[in-house]
Amino acid sequence: MAVLNWHEDFIVHLVSLIRPKVYVELGLYHCTLFNRIIHFAEQLVGVDISPEAGKYMQQSSKTRFFNGTTQEFAKEVESNSLKIDLLFIDADHSKEAVLEDFKSFFPYIAPHGLILLHDTHPGNEQMIRPEWCGTAYLAIEELFREKGLSYELMTIPLSPGLTICRKRQLQLAWQEKE
User: With bands split at pLDDT 50, 70 and 90, how would you rate the model's confidence at 81?
Assistant: First the structure.
């Protein structure tokens, strides 16, 4: 089963390089990934519909648990104008929910900020069950065809899959205005 969690080491390494000011994780389960990232980010928010998830979060002045839906948290982000440097989408694995989360949070991603989407390359048909990858991979197909938004996508083709999205207007971050 450890092979299915390869993305955690990848994300921790990525975050250790990027050092985001604000990291948001949608869907915590037991906070395994979230807790590994605390050292590398200035402010971290974990969102989960289950109150149990918050019990696993390491307490720190940098961490916050939001018990509610991703859309309830999106409304809070909107009212506070929070700028997110790295967002990890791993809550509801349905195509519709992944698209809704992506579109709801995209306006609050900092320029050249990253969105990581999990479960986007299931290795076989069994992995498409709702308790595994669900239909999250179909959201990537739709986002790939979408026009008018300034982002680039790349999916690591290793099951269960991780798609990296970078919000951008220009290729080089230092040439882009905030």
Answer: confident
**Strands of 43-48's sheet, edge to edge?**
63-67, 43-48, 22-26, 84-89, 109-118, 162-167, 151-156
Contact assessment for residue 65 and residue 49, using Cβ atoms and an 8 Å cutoff: no
Kindly list the distances between the CA atom of residue 103 and the CA atoms of 70, 88, 100, 160, in Å, as whole numbers in the listed order. Answer: 12, 13, 5, 22
14: region left, alpha or beta (phi > 0 left; psi from -120 to 50 alpha) = alpha
Token code pair at residue 80 = 């506070």
pLDDT (mean) for 112-137: 94
Quick one: tokens of 37?
A: 């990232």
pLDDT of residue 115 exceeding 90, the answer is yes
Tally of residues, the chain? 178
Q: pTM here?
A: 0.95
